[in-house]
Amino acid sequence: MNIKENENLSILNHSCAHLLAQAVKHLYPHAKFWVGPVIEDGFYYDIDLGDDVIKEEDLERIEKEMKKISKDGKRIVREEISKEDALERFKDDQYKIDLISRMDEEDTVISCYTQGDFTDLCRGPHVESVKLLKYFKLTKFSGAYWKGDAKNKMLQRIYGVCYENEEDLNAHLVVLEEAKQRDHRKIGKEQDIFMTHELVGAGMPLWLPNGALIRKQLENYIYEKERNMGYDHVYTPCVGTVDLYKTSGHWDHYKENMFPMMKVDEEEFVLRPMNCPHHMLVFKNKLHSYRDLPIRIGEFATDFRYEASGAVKGLERVRCMCQNDAHLFVTPEQIKDEFKKVVSLILDTYNDFGIKNYKFRLSLRDPEDKEKYFDDDDMWNNAEAKLREVLNELNIEYFEAVGEAAFYGPKLDVEVKPAVGPEVTLSTCQLDFLLPRRFELSYIDNKGEKQVPVVLHRAIFGTFDRFTAFLIEETKGAFPVWLSPVQVNIIPVNSEYHLEYASKIKKLLLQNGIRVELDDRNEKLGYKMRESQTRKIPYSLILGEQEKENNTISYREYGKTDTTTLSVDDFVKFLNEKIQNKER
Ligand code: TSB
Ligand code: ZN
């Protein structure tokens, strides 16, 4: 339920934010309070605790204090004062002074709410008594820069949620817990998919062997699809000179998303945030006739972007990423067709991965934002009109978002909802009339005249990083067998007597290209089976006397309780079919 959109719940949660603040004030008398808004799933309060930093166990302490105050049952009293009085009353509180000073009119009436020994500035409304705030929970905490600016002081943000009754609260907590269990950061760690290290840096994940295996399957999957659609793949450096990015326009319109410049000898370099400029130069390397078009240049390309340290998140939002990128160079007549092929590749891919919950977003420029967007009204109007035309012909449902376009053109993005946090973009397909012009690209048309091609920028997975994060959450870490880092776990019933047979089966599976492990530890069968389930390995083979004698295997599929016995050859065939068909 979206709490922000429900008036009663909104008031309840807003009041609960004050209860939180009061409890914090009791426990940390030096605490100063910034803002405490209601959000989609509850509320938070940003608090300056001086040198204190909130830890997990503090939440419990604060919650206990909140319960105590609630039991006391003080009334919540509204009071209206003048701006002048407010400035006087809160004169020792820099945060409240900041808020009050920004209220426009001199004669604005400012409201305060008092409950017992605690008064806070607030527009309200609130519930009548703290007694009504009974079913709440503090859910998490984080650091948050004052006013969201990394140059400012880091405040402590405490999140919570409040409901009208116990059932609703519990239902919400179950959903939260499920999301936590699905969080790719948790599963990524448990399953050794990726790690981070402060010596490498924030937002710079290291893909561990299990993660690398998954990624390799994704790369192979999309490479094959792209080859079949006539793409050519290249490798280009992950740096470029500042001049390259001045030519493209990134330097003027995308600089705040880039790592700073570095100098080597006399050359000025930047780590690239996008690959388009390199691919433009690849196109320009040869003369092209209209007959060569579309030319589709693909690359699994590493990019670096400056993302705020508070925004980086596991594999989902990183500073070093690998795009499943391609730039399609087309004639104006080919735009529609090529765009449609990209959309159908997206749909095909989502179907193969079983992704069902997504939305198409038409991302447009904000015409007011002259800094972010290249200033050429005709070009934008033309590109947006063309894109709408394609979308209407495709008959897909989409919503519009102003200010989300790339600086060079409008986009069709695909949005998905991660386990924790707001929606993110996976796939994207973008229409660009600008960069080809800036790089002076051309092809010769059927009359022998020079023309400027149009470019479609597209990424099906978006980045391998973000797609993998999403995939982990979709599958809850139980990957389909074709993607699983370990596909088969062999468990001999007795690690002594059945080891030889188990080793023989392992060898055979390996020869058939199957990723297999043999658990030869001297542990009980039940223990090993449970571990195999916890690791979410798709197939566990149980090999004992019967199997050894009959040259068979018995397997149990992840999540199931029954066991099936097959001849070894039939099992290999059965498994290979599942892998080949990318069965889920
Ligand atoms: C598609 N030039 C185009 C390209 O040709 C481009 O860079 N587009 S983009 O800026 O939208 O990025 C492509 C995709 O990268 C996005 O759709 C998103 O899925 C993914 N992405 C963007 N930023 C991050 C990030 N910080 N971490 C992980 N993935 C990201
Ligand atoms: Zn691009």
SSE order and pairing:
Elements: H1 7-27, E1 32-33, E2 38-39, E3 42-48, H2 56-72, E4 76-82, H3 83-89, H4 94-101, E5 109-115, E6 118-121, E7 135-145, E8 154-163, H5 166-182, H6 184-190, E9 194-195, E10 206-207, H7 209-228, E11 232-233, E12 239-241, H8 242-248, H9 250-253, E13 262-264, E14 267-271, H10 276-284, E15 295-304, E16 320-330, H11 335-353, E17 359-364, H12 377-394, E18 398-402, E19 411-416, E20 424-432, H13 435-438, E21 443-444, E22 450-451, E23 454-463, H14 464-475, E24 488-492, H15 499-511, E25 516-518, H16 525-534, E26 539-543, H17 545-550, E27 552-557, E28 564-567, H18 568-580
Parallel strand pairs: 11-15, 17-18, 24-25, 24-26
Antiparallel strand pairs: 1-3, 2-3, 3-8, 4-5, 5-6, 7-8, 9-10, 12-14, 13-14, 15-16, 16-23, 17-19, 19-20, 20-23, 21-22, 26-27, 27-28
Bound molecules: 5'-O-(N-(L-threonyl)-sulfamoyl)adenosine and zinc ion.
